[in-house]
User: Fold these one by one.
Assistant:
Number 1:
Amino acid sequence: METRQDSYGRLKMKKVIIHVDMDAFFASVEQALNPSLKGKPVFVSGNTARDSVIAACSYEAKKYGVKSGMSIFEGLNLCPHAIIVRGNPERYIDTSRRIFHILQRFTEMVELYSIDEGFLEMELDNASYENLRHLALSIKKAIYQETSLTCSIGISCNKTVAKIASDLCKPDGIMIVDESQIYQFMENLPVKDVPGIGPRMTEYLNLMGIEFCGQVRKLPVSLFREKFGIRGEEIWHLCHGRGETKVTVQSPEPKSFGHSYTLMQDTDDMNLILSVLCRLSHQVGMRMREEGYYGNVVCVTLRYSDFSSFTKRKTYPFWFNDDQTIFRNAGSIMFAEPISEKIRLVGVSLSGIHKRYQMSLFRNEKREIMLKVMDSINKKYGTDTVFPCLMLYEKIRCLPVKKTHAFIFGELKKIPNSFLSEQPE
DNA sequence: TCTGGGGTCCTAGGACCC
DNA sequence: TCTGGGGTCCTAGGACCC
């Protein structure tokens, strides 16, 4: 990358976007922590009831064609000797924070894009290739020294190209794409490798005979607009190697809070489904209260055993974040129509977010105090020290029994009659 | 032992109001 | 008294990301 001069011969600062992408993040964190996993194929499973999907896998496993998102079953077919490790989300969040702080030492302009990726924006007076490479090496060195983890770094003039570059040089690589090289860089890049072009769009483009970004450039933008609307226009630009050139330091306000859960087994036990719905509502409520948000749109997702799913949502004229209101509304949405098939997954989310409390006719101060007490006890003594009573049904049916203190929030009559009689030992 | 969980953004169609 | 058009809000669903 050349350093430019203006017409007076003064040195011009050059802005670069640096994409830092951790290599096989979850798996590498586990390997760094447990030396016996080093150099071996590792699958990190999601922290879920069914243990069915690979959340991340080590490079030793990737060699066999294993990818994250694959079922463990499929992964083991490709790589039978893989070691399966249960994920530790807190550990990854903590490591991610540490990496973020390391990046902030290089510039304040850091955007935490996801748990294992970040963008840096820097103004450099010497943006020569050597200098950029040196900068990338310093970032990699700092991260490695403090976390024992490797990352890949892509540098260019916008986020799209920087991200593609870091992806192409994985693992443990550095790739710099100067603005003047973008045309050439994109020419033979498969459209499926462009962030923003997913499997569906790839399929459509392939059907049009388009496989590489270079082919898109030969077609008019109007064709894409006609075929795919605004989305088509965006894709046309992405394939030209254009993209966002600003990093967003401040994380945007959240738009929704949600939790979903795939049951251990598909079920038509409505008491269990209600109990899970109650727990999910509780989880959503706790997070929203902790962060001080209220919402007025409840969205319920159900997935049936045949994998078909539906979402139903409802907007309310008041804002809330208490477990009971979320649960009651979610329940009435869910049971508005009869459920005839076995359920695989239940999900609840709350959107229509407002930060401040909106005065509501339904304000219930007693309940607010109660929730405050519940939240503070859970904060002090651990999650689920105190929880809505209806959650007990799931705990007793499906989870290892531990000493609990049930908290009844006025829903006693809704607790299934079978609840007491079905208690296992 | 087939397919997790957390999100965001966009679109299309209907209801409703003026 | 068979019927226009624009704007906005709501809902359901799909595509995409990590």
Number 2:
Amino acid sequence: MSQGKIYRADYSTAKDARVHQTRAAIRKAFLNLLDQKPLDQITVREIATEAAIGYTTFFRHHPSKEELLNEIAAAEIQNLIELALSVLGPNDSREAALAMCGYVAEHRALWSTLLTGGAASVLRDEFVRLSLQVAAAWQGSDETIPAELGVILVTSGTIELLAWWLKQKDPMPVDKIAAIFDSAVVSPIIRPS
Amino acid sequence: MSQGKIYRADYSTAKDARVHQTRAAIRKAFLNLLDQKPLDQITVREIATEAAIGYTTFFRHHPSKEELLNEIAAAEIQNLIELALSVLGPNDSREAALAMCGYVAEHRALWSTLLTGGAASVLRDEFVRLSLQVAAAWQGSDETIPAELGVILVTSGTIELLAWWLKQKDPMPVDKIAAIFDSAVVSPIIRPS
Amino acid sequence: MSQGKIYRADYSTAKDARVHQTRAAIRKAFLNLLDQKPLDQITVREIATEAAIGYTTFFRHHPSKEELLNEIAAAEIQNLIELALSVLGPNDSREAALAMCGYVAEHRALWSTLLTGGAASVLRDEFVRLSLQVAAAWQGSDETIPAELGVILVTSGTIELLAWWLKQKDPMPVDKIAAIFDSAVVSPIIRPS
Amino acid sequence: MSQGKIYRADYSTAKDARVHQTRAAIRKAFLNLLDQKPLDQITVREIATEAAIGYTTFFRHHPSKEELLNEIAAAEIQNLIELALSVLGPNDSREAALAMCGYVAEHRALWSTLLTGGAASVLRDEFVRLSLQVAAAWQGSDETIPAELGVILVTSGTIELLAWWLKQKDPMPVDKIAAIFDSAVVSPIIRPS
DNA sequence: CTCTAATCGAGACGGTACGTCGCGTCTTACG
DNA sequence: CGTAAGACGCGACGTACCGTCTCGATTAGAG
């Protein structure tokens, strides 16, 4: 509370409708701007104006725009990550690839923004970070490629592939990209020839 | 000349010894700092202080710290890129991989800074940019993977692999990493099973 | 609003107490410094430090230190100028001279700073400017001396006389200086022999 | 010589033709620029470029642009000052006034620049300074007006009158302005009614 | 249905870094 | 081998955002 900082309540448990409204407005405005320019060219004032809220109010909800991006990215990735990592498991990776690409395609607008809107590198780091966490116990099928490196290569490749995919004017169908994903990104790591 | 900017001579053809001294000092100081923290936490004043030059002098040589990084990265990558892309050619990719990894190992200090010091994303983008340029004419061996995507995946994978490698306390031998590089990054793209 | 400049509210109608506080502090600090050295040896940072405000805050209130001086000078002169110009009217100039000198004497500290502290030339120009404005309609009692020239000579002479007076260690009494003022500065212009 | 300063020979006794050439070029370029804008908007680089000499060369001849102006002003004033002060003597002031105005009229271009080109205040100060020096021994014809104040008022009035005169598009004839000068500036001081 | 506390808008403020400008010194390379 | 060209250190400038803080105004939801 009075820790020499701005007043910042615990909005995570807030029940006030205004809070949700505000947070949604911020999120929407932010993604909107991310569409247009990279993170470091966006100012907090812009976000606030775009969201039609007071400048100070932004900080009541997020410590900084970087943190906001992390929050959004983490939340979104959380959904994707199990799909992506299940691919590394013993299950049918082809199917998992399809599932993942399908998921991204369904949320194309959001992911397009995240991946091609100037937030890619942040997202990538967050993705790798989360993946490493989740896959801490994961063991590669052999010793050729160290587990950590494997995770990095797969996640990194995933991001790149998705970013490229979403950037296309005339994008490939899901099954085609899933096939490439499986053969060019996943298989080489988990099933080294 | 008087283009509303700081006085900035044509240093590319400069013969004054001081110019080279200054530029070297800036470069050294900059890489030094990049070792410690990411680009956006480094101020031009820090660089100037570290290089023992005047603040203004920095801008007489480089428009901004971002541009400086690009210059350094571009120059260094230029050396690497032919090795990396020759891998995509019809020649013995195993050998090329070895050559490339060897090159990086020889310049370990510099590359370590570039890849793990907070400049990785810039370097990656620059790498991809240059690769796409150079490989504009390159044609994938089949139609499964679009050429552009192939280049992106290879370069991206290369960066990640090298970054991981250089980050290790007890790094793999060159031939081992080259083998992984070839089998996990290069082959899947240029020789899809 | 976003006119490519620093954020600058409409302070003229401000009701915030802080604004008045800040402006007063700036004004005081500025006059303080003007006491010690001419305008162009005073930096905005000095003013800010002296006023115990942030550097940027200065610009939120005044476009530049020159402008600040103009504002102060104009405001102060506005008080004096009617006295000075009434002297040019048909009324008893001797009395008016006394009134004006008395006014300056009463605000000796401020005027001393303005006239002898390195701001004299700015003040002179502002004085002439305002006088010409006010006296646009004024008609000299004859055609010997053009009206504009008359105003210039009187205001200029006034400034010089006051500056000299305030600079003296052992200043003349008000009535004496007023007499000189009338006979040496005013009369020759409005009552050419 | 080696006093930790720039190399600066004693050019006052120089016989090298180049020296005179350079000095003349500087002087000419400087007055040229003064015609267009006030002193503090003129940079040394501009003067050097205009004079077609090297930037450093300027400093070999003048410590600063301010000093240069002072030198020029002092030299020019020196010619005028005896005329102006002779007016304060017991001789026929009417004639002296005519002489002085005539002198200025003959050098109109130069004086116009000095008085109306943005150097007026510097010139004024220099004028007063020199006048006070020269007139140190001068004694006013009575005690009404202190000598120092008298000198200040006369010189100041002189400057203002000349500046106004030269600024006119359709200037008065010399004899007319001389008459005004005598009656409005000189007489009131040396012949108080 | 009220009133009380959470939430918000507005915006002044202290800071830090930016990139520009001009000064005046010092060094170098060239003629 | 001296001098013109210009690289350099210095420090002020004015701008852009940052994140903190204070003040009211509003409004939701608990009593």
Number 3:
Amino acid sequence: MSNNNDIRSAGLKVTHARKRILEVLETGNESHLSADDINRILIKNNDEVGVATVYRVLNQFVDAGICIKHNFDSGQAVFELTPDHHHDHMVCMKTGNVIEFEDEVIEKRQEELAKKNGYRIVDHSLVLFVEPIED
Amino acid sequence: MSNNNDIRSAGLKVTHARKRILEVLETGNESHLSADDINRILIKNNDEVGVATVYRVLNQFVDAGICIKHNFDSGQAVFELTPDHHHDHMVCMKTGNVIEFEDEVIEKRQEELAKKNGYRIVDHSLVLFVEPIED
DNA sequence: CTCAGTGCAAACTATTTGCAGATTT
DNA sequence: AAATCTGCAAATAGTTTGCACTGAG
């Protein structure tokens, strides 16, 4: 029931819709889901709550820090549970596969570059669009 | 008249709309413009061509490699002339200011990470969302 | 019981497309 | 003249919002 605590401690009521959406985020094999993906999964599970609610809840989750939102590229935003440690993404253009990675060197370098310009990093987004080497 | 050649060599006819849009991209003090920004500027210049045309032409320019499109963040995509050498972006959350930067170390690191995973980088996007240090 | 949450449908924003008339080559 | 291009308005995709009803605390 750790889920429910996450929801509760965000000052949100523990409702059916929120529990189910959080479950989908926790359970899926694919950890980067669009609002529509989530809606579709809920329908398949006979737990439909409507797109409006999915969007509303996801945004509340983002505000609460429960999940984060990525605007990788084309069209839809995707959401993932806030990871324990930060990571970046590689998106395969062939398969759509998303690979997570982290790299100390890049992270540190970014901080330095921001500071050099008089800024502090609030957030950042690094996405590599890649293709399998053999093509 | 190098503009016109850019357009022509992309296999596109050199039309009023295309010339004006290319001019705006070349001239503006702000080099990262949304379709709407461009439309607004064209209206101000009494060169309105309509949003549909702006979008269509921008997409053709992107396909032709004349400009590139960024999905920085919220809402609208922004376009800039294809730069001579690649660079990444820092977006100030306070002022909306866009700072360009480049860093060899990060670039090299990205290649290595992709290769390590069996991929080749087709493209990448690195955006730092920053705030001025004093707040 | 009260206030937050839901779900529908309608609204909105960014972008694309069909089509008839205008332009470029 | 032929083929491409334009610009309007209508269509589409993704997301948000108003509102009357429902459900959590």
